[in-house]
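Appendix B. Raw example, untouched.
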Amino acid sequence: MKKYITKSNLTIAALIFAIAILTTASVLISQTMSSPNALSESQIIELKPGATIRSLAAQLEQHDLIKYPKILILWTRLNGDAKHLQAGEYIIHPAMTLSDLIDNITTGRVHQYSLKLLEGWTFKEFMQAINSNEAIDHNLINSSQKEILEQLEINYDHPEGLFFPETYHIHKNISDLDVLKRAHELMKKNLHDLWDERDEGLPFETPYEALILASIVEKESAVPEERALIAGVFINRLRKNIRLQTDPTVIYGIGDKYDGDIRFRDLRTDTPYNTYTRKGLPPTPIAMPGFGSIKAVMHPAKTDYLYFVAINDNSGRHKFSSTLVEHNKAVDQYQRKHNKK
């Protein structure tokens, strides 16, 4: 008896074969996209602007991170991910899957670098840190401070105090201008938020004046708990029209000529920043104050103190006094006698 292969049998066989192929492909794709990698330590890959899924697959294959690059190409083209690759550096952690990596690349979760801009730094020190960071694209190295302010569209004549000290997380090739924009916007936000909640009756007409005093508090306070007290001293002196007489402003006025020692003649030499020779606030901030110092100026301690002197015990603390007599005794105790040792 002869057996005949009918069209129906051929169709069923073809269907079974197709299902087997699709099942195998599905398993292979699933394994390729969802299996953890075998890395022992993290690696970084970089997608240049204009990179394609094909160039990404080739780079992953070169790093032994993918066995079948065509599967990645097919998969991302089918689901549309191939059209949404974003340039940048991406970190591949041990046991990370290709699916997670593609998700990072299509959503732009690039590798982040840290940039520390410290409280109390001057604008010059800010720029030194920015210029020495290799992740940043440097375009402002030869620009003057005035030119930088113009590019940032900041309507001040001096950059000091206008940028918030913080640890910024940045991606590779971010421009120095964009870093400064972020720092300036954050300073504006923090300053104006605290200004809106300030105590009543403070001797400031503008947030900028408060920022100037905050920069002085920043330079004078080594102990966070003393910021409000130090701010209270300076505010009391402003209200009584007494000179602030603070060394950090004098040092700032000396500029690059400052050699680490402040001398009596420096206190007598008049500059716009010498608060021993001039009453009121200096014309600009003298450093970048942090949130704590700005808050202290907006909410100073309610005190009758008018003076303070460093205790000189390496704690960074001060002795506060209400009268000049008390202050002179404190100076004798903590400064003059200490210096004779």
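End of appendix B.
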